Amino acid sequence: MKIHEYQAKELFRKFQIPVPEGGPAFTVDEALNVADRLGAYPVVVKAQIHAGGRGKGGGVKLAASRDEVKTLAENMLGMTLVTHQTGPQGKQVNKLLIEQGLNIQKELYLSLLPDRATAKIAIIASEAGGMDIEAVAAEQPEKII
Predict the structure, then answer these.
(1) ATP-grasp domain spans which residues (predicted)?
(2) How far apart are CA 27 and CA 31, in angstroms?
C-alpha cells in the first residue's frame, strides 16, 4: 500500500506525533482555503505523487503570499512531475499538500518499506535528512540505520 505525504501526516496527528499544520488540496480553491486557514506565510505547496525526489523535480515550493499559492497551485495541479523515481514519463499531479513553512532546526529521514526477501517491514532511518538520502547511503552509509 502506498500513501501520500498528507495521508501519512494525518496518521501521525491521530497518534499525536507532531507535524506541521496543513491539509490536502485537490483544486486551486482548496489550496487557497488551506492557506487561509493556516493564516501566516510562508506556506509550502507540495505535489503529492507516489515518488521521491519531488523537491528536486520542482514539486515542492515556498509561497510567500496568497497570490503565490494560487499561481503555484494552478501550475502544479495537472502537471507531469518527473523525478529520478518516476522515470522520464513522470506522474501527473492531482493533489497538493499545503502546510506551514517552518524554520527547520534538524531534518531527519524515516522510511518503512516492505522487504520482499524476508516478507517483513524494513525500517530505514538517518539523522542526515531526506533530500539527498540516496547520496547519503552511497557516500556515508554509516549514517543510515
Answers:
(1) 9-55
(2) 6
Cβ-contact 134, 126 below 8 angstroms: no
What is the C-alpha to C-alpha distance for residues 56 and 131, in angstroms, rounded to an integer? 8
Return d(Cα 68, Cα 59) in angstroms, integer: 14
pLDDT at 23: 98
Q: Which three cell numbers stand for residue 137?
A: 547511503
**pLDDT tens digits, one per residue of 55-111:** 989 999 999 999 999 999 999 999 999 998 999 999 999 999 999 999 988 888 888
Alpha-helical runs (H) found in the chain = 5-14, 28-38, 66-76, 133-139
- The architecture in CATH of the region 5-100 reads 2-Layer Sandwich (3.30)
Find cell 532546526 and name the residue: 105
Burial (Cβ within 10 Å: 0-12, 13-18, ≥19) of residue 14: exposed
Indicate the domain borders of the chain.
5-100, 109-143
Which residues are 110's β-sheet partners? Answer: 125
Question: What helix, strand, coil percent values describe the chain, rounded to 5?
Answer: 30, 25, 45
Name the CA radius of gyration of the chain, rounded: 16
